[in-house]
Amino acid sequence: MIIDIGLNQATAFAPATVGNVAVGFDILGFALDHIGDRVTVTRSARPEVRILAINGADVALPEDPSKNTATAGLVRLIADRKLDFGFDVTIDKGIPLGSGMGGSAASAVAAIVAASALLEERLPLPDRFTYALIGEAVASGAAHGDNIAPCLLGGLTLVRSMDPPDVIRIPVPPAINCVLVHPHMRIDTRTSRGVLAAHVERAAFIEQTSNIAGFIAGCFTDDRDLIARSLRDVVIEPQRAHLIPGFAAVQKAAFAAGAMGCSISGAGPSLFAWHGPDIDPAELSAAMVKAFATVELKADAWHSSVNGLAAHLVER
């Protein structure tokens, strides 16, 4: 639900997201329930961006608006539109930093959704996508839309192109849900991207292409067996697994507990697992948390639909 709260101030909530979804590096992502970031934007007299407060972050975040993921897009927006007013911004982080849960995307999206509500005409979706990408690039060193798209649209999305924006919402069988487990550690997105090889072997490329095709076909045809057979990452996951202590044990525990698929959420270290209606999500998440405990890592778990809500305006 969208609630207009006046011409001078707006608050937006943007959900956490799972990027890549195993088979779709930088192009697939889905939104989660319950957890996310909030950003409040207030119109100011001067055409500049000021960060008034950053709440909920366990490490210091940039206070320079051009270097903060939430506000970099707003700086560009003012310049592009030659606005005669600016934005004062308060950021409330609800997503753990460096968790692989789309925290940078959520802040960027929440800020642009809130700011858009203060314009004479709200930004069309392609423009919101483009300005939010600016913040994502500041955070990770590269513009990738796999978190931005589901954060803006909700549910599972495919980014066919970023310039010009071309985003497709992918239907997910309603019986499928998700468990997300976040170990108490951080992985910087730049570090996680830095371990990736520049080239992919032909055999791995063919297998991964087959998997993403099967995965999307399974989603459109409500074929859960095909989704389960296809939800396997043979390119990115093998290169990043060593960054997450206990990864193999956690993944093995997830499959033993009945997961359809289990892989790294975004850049990690969080892991996600899809499951059908015959699986108890509490048992599945407990098995994954227990496996992390074998390497002395505490972990938090969330149960979520795969069709989470899009970013939206809320009452403060």
What is the level 1 CATH name of the largest domain?
Alpha Beta
Shape descriptor: globular
Summarize the helix and strand pattern as letters: EEEHEHHHEEEHHHHHEEHEE
Distance between the termini: 14 Å
- Describe the main β-sheet briefly: 7 strands, mixed
Helix proportion range? 25-40%
CATH topology name of the largest domain: Ribosomal Protein S5, domain 2
Taking Cα atoms only, what radius of gyration do you get, to the nearest Å?
Answer: 19 Å
Poorly predicted residue ranges: 1-6
Count up the domains: 2
Structure overview:
The protein is of the alpha+beta class and 316 residues long. It has 2 domains: 169 residues, Ribosomal Protein S5, domain 2; 129 residues, Alpha-Beta Plaits. Strands 1, 2, 3, 4, 5, 6 and 11 form a 7-stranded mixed sheet that branches. It has a 4-stranded antiparallel sheet with strand order 8-9-7-10. A hairpin with a 6-residue loop joins β8 and β9. The radius of gyration is 19 Å and the shape is globular.
